[in-house]
């Protein structure tokens, strides 16, 4: 791998796999996968699987920022 490759989960870009020697470094571009930022993987496929597993384990995936998804959310304008 000679250049960064976008990592997508469910059709949405969440990170970039950047070359790091013979491995790839996970560079998060979405907060939902921030916990994986900087991790090293043996392949882009492995990094994609890690992102998918991580997102599948989150209980708030898919919730929108509206009063229904976050009833205690206050928004200042």
Keywords:
77 residues, alpha+beta, four-stranded antiparallel β-sheet, 29% strand, globular
State the end-to-end distance.
Answer: 45 Å
Task: Provide mean pLDDT, rounded.
Answer: 83
Low-pLDDT ranges: 63-67
Give the helix proportion (percent range). Answer: 10-25%
Order of helices and strands: EEEEH
Side-by-side strand order of the widest sheet: 1-2-3-4
Number of helices: 1
User: How does the major sheet shape up?
Assistant: 4 strands, antiparallel
Beta strands, count:
4
Strand percentage: 25-35%
Backbone shape: globular
Q: State the secondary-structure class.
A: alpha+beta
Using only C-alpha atoms, the radius of gyration works out to 15 Å
Structural features, described:
The protein is an alpha+beta fold. It has a domain at 5-56. Helix content is 17%, strand content 29%. The chain is built from one helix and four strands, in the order E-E-E-E-H. It has one helix at residues 44-56, and strands at 5-9, 12-20, 23-28, 40-41. A four-stranded antiparallel β-sheet has the order 1-2-3-4, covered by helices on one side. Strand 1 and strand 2 (12-20) form a beta hairpin. The radius of gyration is 15 Å and the shape is globular. Mean pLDDT is 83; it is low at 63-67.
Quickly describe the structure.
This protein is an alpha+beta fold.
Draw up the topology in text.
Elements (H helix, E strand, L loop, with lengths): L4 E5 L2 E9 L2 E6 L11 E2 L2 H13 L21
Antiparallel strand pairs: 1-2, 2-3, 3-4
